[in-house]
Specification:
By secondary structure, the chain is α/β, with parallel strands linked by helices. An 8-stranded mixed sheet has the order 1-7-14-13-8-9-10-11, with helices on both faces. A 6-stranded mixed sheet has the order 3-2-4-5-6-12, sandwiched between helices. The chain is globular and about 50 Å long. It is built from 10 helices and 14 strands. The longest helix is centred in the middle third of the chain and has 14 residues.
């Protein structure tokens, strides 16, 4: 079991035509000077508004009820975006509808944070149609994981702004009073991140871990999504940073291929540290076994480097999926008896 520690300071929618006309200008947005420091959106306080939108998969209003109840119990106002309840096959509305909804929430000064309702697929279909000018001037927290890695990495690379990698609305328990402790802890970590507490996590030791210490800006997310963004304006830069990755439902050979992508694209070369979260592996087909574990794959790709590596960190498509603040400095310590990842800024 993993122990979590908190370090406290004191203990309007776009029209379809507009959606299409903004594609070219959004695709060539200037990401700003590389020397610009990463910005941290303001911490939330009671009475602030959290908006919920569906940039990827579809979700109903009823499915959001448990999450809304918890967010309101924390003292926040909740606003449902126009895509909630919409459906375009598996998507939460058409591309134009999802882009317009997210754009309106990014631009609305009364909205202090945007929680994505769920993952699935679809964010990459709209990211180049979003205009980030107002967001750059008045940043706010964007929250999610899995397919939302597209938005988190775009915010990191293009907007140079911090964001929160965490569970989304579809992961909130139906009955909070009957929730398992790990569900409660992971969801409370979202509130801690939003309210500006510096998070620190202590994880169980894996024998395959490679010891060491590292300090750097934390980046990462879903590995398959990171791979799919290579070469685009949203491509993740990793030099001098701590990278975390997770994935689900992939064959071992596919995981091997993804780590080769990280290796060949230089994303592993100049890391400060590597954090490997949950990997739910799809069983090999009989007679077509790959013959290597996730640990084998990772350690082979990083064998020429000397930074610390840890496995089974509590992040990913699993109940132990704690909030991580991307785009701010963290300290990673991998020792024989303990692993800690601590937000330092």
């Amino acid at each position: 079991m993993m122990n979590r520690k908190h370090f406290l300071a004191s203990a309007g929618a776009l029209a379809a035509g507009a959606f299409l006309s903004k594609a070219s200008q959004a695709a060539v947005q200037d990401p700003g000077p590389k020397s610009e420091a990463f910005r941290r959106p303001p911490s939330l306080k009671p009475g602030d508004t959290i908006a919920i939108t569906s940039p990827a998969g579809t979700i109903t209003v009823a499915e959001l009820t448990p999450a809304v109840a918890v967010l309101e119990s924390w003292g926040f106002k909740v606003r449902l975006g126009n895509t909630i309840g919409k459906k375009d096959f598996t998507l939460g509305g058409t591309d134009a509808e999802r882009a317009a909804d997210l754009q309106a929430l990014l631009d609305d000064p009364s909205v202090k944070a945007i929680m994505c309702a769920r993952g699935g697929y679809g964010s990459v279909r709209i990211v180049d149609h979003l205009v980030w000018d107002r967001f750059r001037k008045h940043p706010k927290w964007v929250i999610g994981f899995s397919d939302i890695t597209v938005l988190l990495n775009h915010i990191h690379t293009v907007c140079r702004t911090a964001a929160i990698h965490s569970k989304m609305c579809n992961s909130f328990p139906d009955d909070w009073s009957k929730a398992e402790p790990i569900q409660v802890e992971t969801i409370l970590s979202i509130r801690d991140a939003l309210e500006g507490r510096k998070l620190s996590y202590e994880a169980a030791v894996n024998p395959a871990n490679r010891p060491g210490t590292a300090a750097g800006i934390l980046v990462g997310g879903n590995l398959k999504t990171i791979e799919s963004l290579a070469g685009s304006a949203t491509d993740l830069t990793t030099t001098g940073k701590i990278l975390f990755v997770e994935d689900t439902g992939e064959y071992l050979y596919s995981i091997d291929r993804m780590f080769w992508n990280l290796k060949r694209s230089g994303k592993l070369d100049r890391l400060k540290g590597l954090v490997v979260g949950g990997f739910k592996v799809k069983p090999d087909d009989p007679g077509d076994e790959f013959g290597r574990t996730v640990q084998d794959i990772v350690l082979d790709r990083v064998k020429t480097f000397r930074y610390p590596v840890c496995f089974d960190f509590p992040v990913g498509h699993q109940r132990a999926n704690f909030a991580l603040v991307c785009g701010v400095r963290h300290l990673l310590s991998v020792a024989a008896d303990k692993v800690t990842l601590t937000q330092s800024a």
